[in-house]
Design a protein that fits this description.
The complex is a heterodimer of chains A (about 375) and B (about 375).
Chain A lengths: L2 H17 L1 H21 L7 E7 L4 H12 L3 E5 L7 H7 L4 E5 L3 H6 L3 E9 L3 H34 L5 E9 L6 H32 L2 H6 L4 H30 L8 H25 L3 H19 L11 H7 L3 H15 L7 H26 L1
Parallel strand pairs in A: 1-2, 1-3
Antiparallel strand pairs in A: 3-4
Helix pairs in contact in A: 1-9, 2-7, 2-9, 7-9, 7-10, 7-11, 7-13, 9-10, 10-11, 10-13, 10-14, 13-14
Chain B lengths: L1 H16 L1 H21 L7 E7 L4 H10 L5 E6 L4 H8 L5 E5 L3 H7 L2 E9 L3 H30 L7 E9 L6 H23 L1 H7 L3 H6 L4 H31 L7 H25 L3 H18 L12 H6 L4 H15 L7 H25 L1
Parallel strand pairs in B: 1-2, 1-3
Antiparallel strand pairs in B: 3-4
Helix pairs in contact in B: 1-10, 2-7, 2-10, 7-10, 7-11, 7-12, 7-14, 8-11, 10-11, 10-15, 11-12, 11-14, 11-15, 14-15
The chains are: A alpha/beta (about 375), B alpha/beta (about 375).
């Protein structure tokens, strides 16, 4: 590789990017706006679940129970008064996530020291929501039951000298004590945006020249394929690092996500990740004949699977085993482990060497493949 | 009408000639649905737990045995010292560490309050809160058993007042993720293919300078746009049919509502989504730019701002307003209602109206821009 030739090509590419002002804006500004908007949206914390209550009992206990649920802070409680056949319709229309039905003998059973069951209708169409909503309802119910037990307990202790044991799980969440899902999602979003923006431009780069017929001009120069590729990619490495810097500023200043690890290590690993995204983009570009095909392949076969199977939203460990092996081939997965580790766990950076090795291997492999493929098409 | 027919035929021929793109547009979304439907799930099961039993009594062993007799927790390792808990969590060997304190059995028999210590890897808040919920439920059950034991030994009738919720889960009783994922994935896949299909359509003609030829013809911009999008409506409906057939045979996702409503919803969605694609195409000057805008405005927003995974109600107000122009938001809601809940026409009227309005808006704007750009 001749560095001087690469530099000439680099200059040509850079001035091309600079001339296309709108492209520059879209490469730098748009991802930041996206990061800001999507970062505000990626929260799985479920609050204000709409809970409709159908109280057939109207006793002191039923009213107190509903009050305790309302005071738990997880629910927006509404009381149902209309005809009961409409209750199910609330779930169909999505007006309520949960419907709580308190039977007529609720208060009586509790007064008789018995177990009183209440019925909970849950909208299972959104299973994640259903599980969380039920969890919260159970938590609030436990609170109320405990109150009843305490009353009964003092009675038992006075009359029979019996004391009732209680076993509780005292849970402490490490790395993210308040369980703020944003701390987990926003840094990962940076990785996803980095993938999307850098891959789009490179996946079209070669095919664009071919469609416009300028490829021949590049080919007749004494530039070697590896030099052409280096010249094509280097500007985007620069843009990638600008993006990372701006994204880090947004994450740290606007979202106030604490970072516990080494920020320089993050840059180092991001460089390795860029190697894979740029290489992949280039590889796609050597495969296709038109820009639309490039878009289809990059969109359906790279970006979407990467986003869905990398553990960005759906944890890899929930997948069936064969799919976990598939996920092992996705570089974004390793990068997300790195980012999340550095941000949340303060992972000491040498501990991340397996991920780093995977990214490096991937990046060099795909770049080599792209160069080879490019070489072949020239002949 | 005749003019429109001509451009429709021209576009269709162009699509047919590009076999690769056509194949990708029809088969790939269906194929991907299979892959994702199989792979993705929110079901938090088989959580890897490390156990530290400091009590080492019959009772503590029984407690631990009961803990691992379900699909939620897997006993991944046994620790001997507290200091080991740290490293286990940091290196993600386990998701949680459970510590049974030294005097567990003694305290229970005395009728005291015992705290089991649970350390959870909180990095992934969603999984962590589900795990904490399971631990709470198990502690609940252990409490109930211990209390009955105490009362039984004392010879009292085991009666404690207690409220016990009895959940009945509608629409998806087994809480299978596939049932809830498939409608969302349909929205994501169709949105992506619709935007990819049309976002390059006009800008490509601009780049190749064939648009002038079209403009000197007596064709009106509306006719041009309609002719460009309609072939893809056909393609989109084919894709949708394929997805539903696969969803039924592979994941048991049954369409509970009417197929007519489903077709209407899909049609309105395609009208809006393709309109957005054409709009992107009409405002950009290069294919590269159109691609960038198309992906940025479809892939992540369909996933994140559509309410598919992240509840819109929990977003900041400003972002909630922004989701009003996210087409898949209405599509996914309507699909879930029709497919899972057997919703009536009246129940999804707001979604259908929104899709229609967005479709009219995007298409008119695209027509306006196309006229101007020449």
């Amino acid at each position: 590789m001749n560095l001087k030739r690469v530099r000439v090509l680099l200059k040509k590419e850079l001035s091309q990017i600079r001339r296309d002002r709108s492209l520059f804006g879209i490469l730098i500004v748009a991802p930041m706006i996206q990061l800001f908007i999507l970062g505000n949206a990626v929260t799985t914390d479920i609050r204000d679940i709409s809970l409709a209550v159908r109280d057939y009992d109207h006793s002191y206990h039923s009213r107190e129970y509903v009050r305790v649920i309302g005071a738990s802070g997880y629910f927006q409680v509404t009381t149902l008064t209309g005809p009961e056949k409409d209750d199910g319709d609330l779930l169909v229309r999505g007006k309520a996530g949960l419907v709580l039905v308190i039977p007529t003998d609720f208060g009586k059973r509790l007064l008789n020291q018995q177990t009183a069951t209440v019925q909970v209708l849950v909208d299972g169409a959104d299973s994640n929501f259903a599980v969380q909503g039920l969890n919260y309802l159970q938590k609030a119910t436990r609170l109320y039951s405990e109150r009843l037990v305490r009353v009964a307990q003092s009675d038992l202790a006075r009359r029979r000298g019996i004391s009732l044991p209680t076993i509780v799980a005292e849970s402490r969440a490490w790395y993210n004590p308040d369980l703020t899902s944003r701390y987990y999602m926003v840094p990962a979003l940076m990785g996803v945006l980095l993938l999307v923006t850098t891959m789009i431009v490179t996946s079209m780069s070669l095919v664009k020249e071919r469609e416009e017929g300028t490829m021949e001009q590049v080919i007749v120069t004494p530039l070697r394929p590896s030099e052409i590729i280096a010249g094509k990619l280097l500007p985007f490495v620069v843009i990638g690092f600008i993006e990372i810097t701006l994204a880090l500023a947004v994450i740290l200043l606007a979202f106030r996500v604490p970072i516990r690890g080494n920020i320089l290590a993050l840059y180092f690993y991001s460089g390795l990740f860029l190697l894979t995204t740029l290489g992949l983009g280039l590889f796609v570009s050597t495969l296709v004949k038109t820009q639309q095909q490039a878009m289809l392949i990059a969109g359906f076969f790279v970006m979407m699977p990467f986003v869905l199977l990398s553990g960005f939203i759906f944890p890899v460990e929930n997948m069936p085993l064969p799919m976990q092996y598939v996920a092992a081939f996705i570089p974004l997965k390793y990068y997300l482990t790195i980012i999340r580790g550095i941000f949340l766990k303060g992972t000491w950076w040498p501990d991340l060497w397996p991920q780093a090795l995977a990214l490096l291997g991937w990046g060099l492999g795909i770049l080599g493949l792209a160069t080879l493929k490019f070489h072949k098409r020239l002949d | 009408m005749k003019r429109f027919w001509a451009i429709f035929k021209k576009e269709f021929r162009q699509i047919r000639r590009d076999r690769l793109s056509l194949g990708l547009l029809i088969f790939v979304p269906a194929m991907l649905l299979v892959l994702y439907g199989y792979a993705l799930s929110f079901d938090v099961k088989h959580i890897r737990v490390a156990v530290l039993d400091e009590d080492r009594t019959q009772e503590s062993r029984e407690l631990l045995d009961s803990l691992f007799q379900n699909q939620y927790f897997d006993r991944a390792m046994n620790l001997s010292r507290r200091a080991e808990a740290d490293a286990c969590l940091l290196h993600a060997l386990v998701r949680a560490v459970l510590i049974v304190p030294k005097d567990y059995a003694k305290s229970v028999s005395r009728g005291e309050r015992v705290g089991l210590q649970v350390l959870v890897d909180g990095a992934d808040a969603n999984t962590a809160s589900a795990a904490i919920g399971y631990f709470d439920a198990l502690a609940d059950r252990a409490t109930l058993k211990a209390r009955f034991d105490v009362l039984g030994i004392a010879g009292t009738s085991p009666s404690i007042p207690l409220v016990s919720p009895e959940p009945r889960i509608w629409f998806n009783p087994e809480l299978e993720s596939a049932q809830f994922l498939v409608p969302g994935l349909i929205g994501l896949l169709l949105m992506l293919s619709a935007v990819i299909a049309t976002s390059l359509s006009i800008v490509r003609e601009k780049e190749r300078e064939t648009i002038e030829q079209m403009m000197v013809s007596p064709m009106r911009p509306e006719e041009l746009i309609l002719g460009k999008t309609l072939p893809y409506v056909v393609v989109g409906l084919l894709t949708m049919t394929m997805i539903l057939v696969l969803g039924y045979y592979l994941f048991g996702v049954v369409v509970r509502g009417s197929f007519f409503l489903l077709g209407l919803t899909t049609l309105l969605f395609l009208f809006a989504a393709l309109g957005m694609g054409v709009l992107i195409s009409s405002v950009t000057r290069s294919q590269q730019m159109a691609f960038q805008i198309a992906i940025l405005s479809s892939l992540l927003p369909s996933l994140i701002l559509s309410g598919f995974i992240f509840p819109i109600k929990n977003m900041p107000l400003l972002i909630q307003w922004l989701t009003l122009i996210v087409i898949p938001r209405y599509f996914v809601t309507a699909l879930r209602a029709v497919i899972l809940k057997n919703a009536s026409f009246a129940a999804i009227v707001p979604q259908l109206a929104a899709l229609f309005a967005l479709g009219v808006f995007f298409n008119l704007l695209a027509a306006h821009n196309t006229r101007k750009s020449v």
